[in-house]
Amino acid sequence: MRVILNKKLNIFQQVRELEGWYAVAFSATLLERMLPNYVLFCEATEFADPAQYRNSLNAIWEWLAVPQAKINFAAQLEKVEDAVPDAVDFDNYGVYPAIDMAMSLSATILLIQGEDPQGAVVVSKLSQGGVEAFIEASTEEDISDLDIKQHPLMQWEVETQQELLIFLSKCAKNAESCKQLKQLATAEGMSNIGIEI
């Protein structure tokens, strides 16, 4: 099923219309932009080995690129859930983007397993919400909704998701598309909240 782009629909409504391979590809691309936040958190706190999340995301890309690949996503989900930080245990801000990544990775695996058909919407909202929370946390004074919308990081986030929807409306379901999606995710050399990759 192809995506029909409608300017009147907001991003979340457009993402809701994605199905199957396209929904997973959308999620994987956003995960690629969120993963550095988790890696940095793990390196700063020695909480867990971030390689596990890299491996799980690689498994998702493999599933997208090679449809007949045999991947045990139940085992992947278990490993992901074993490495979710608890905000109560940490007093640094980095725990929140790390939790967003963990929840997004779980949602994508559940989407692949057919257990959460709206997994891509979850990832879309967590990625945007993470950017919003980061902007609020890094601003001294109170910040309005309009200021958040106009913040360069939020504009970049929204543009990236829109660009992704446009790409998915035209692309084929193959390994070459996966390669292009990964490039789209990492082209700027920064995570969704501006951490250098």
Morphology: globular
Assign the CATH class: Mainly Alpha
Query: Strand-and-helix sequence, N→C?
Result: HHHHHHHHH
Low-confidence stretches: 1-8
Tell me what the structure shows.
The chain is mainly alpha-helical. The protein has one domain (11-186): YP_001051499.1 fold like. The protein has helices at residues 11-16, 20-45, 51-65, 73-82, 95-112, 119-137, 145-150, 152-170, 175-186. Helix 2 (20-45) packs across helix 9 and helix 6 packs antiparallel against helix 8. The chain is globular. InterPro entries: DUF416, YP001051499.1-like_dom_sf. This is DUF416 domain-containing protein. It comes from Paraglaciecola psychrophila 170. Pfam families: DUF416 (PF04222).
Summarize this structure briefly.
The chain is an all-alpha fold and 197 residues long.
Keywords:
single chain, 197 residues, mainly alpha, DUF416 domain-containing protein, YP_001051499.1 fold like, YP001051499.1-like_dom_sf, DUF416
Reconstruct the topology from this structure.
Blueprint: H1 11-16, H2 20-45, H3 51-65, H4 73-82, H5 95-112, H6 119-137, H7 145-150, H8 152-170, H9 175-186
